[in-house]
Amino acid sequence: MLDTAAPDKNPQGFILLASIVNQQYPGKAKFIRAGRDRDVNVDYDKESIVRFPGYMPDRAKNYLFGLTHFIVVPYLFSTQSGVVTEALSHGKLIIVNDIPAFTHLKGLDFVFAIDFNDEDAIVNCLKDLFNLD
Q: Cα separation of 99 and 113, whole Å?
């Protein structure tokens, strides 16, 4: 998860995804949270999430994109997302919240659109992800 974490960016959805992965696929994935937290208090250490707090210059973003296989965008609502554009420009698979702003991404081979409030949807998405060739 990149960018500023605020209530509308749904850091709890990101935490839930990480928690499920850590429980069901122990040792199979690592998570990175990069950016500033604003008006949220999240215990990233509890879910073993590596954290890069604060402003990220472009070189740091490019480095982090290079480390990742998936970009998680759990926003509750959004009118735009630069993170999605950046992820796609780096050829990354993305997991987005199934919200109207991301409707145009649904059904694309490189996008997983899920409801981050639905644990079953997250589990099914993870099964698909961990079964990719």
A: 8
Are 114 and 122 in contact by the 8 Å Cβ rule? The answer is yes
Distance CA 123, CA 91 (A): 24
Q: Rounded to two decimals, what is the model's pTM? A: 0.83
- What are residue 94's phi and psi, to 5 degrees? -130, 150
**Residue-wise pLDDT tens digits, 6-56:** 667 778 888 899 999 999 999 888 888 877 787 888 777 887 888 877 777
Compute the distance between CA of residue 116 and CA of residue 118 in angstroms, rounded to an integer: 5
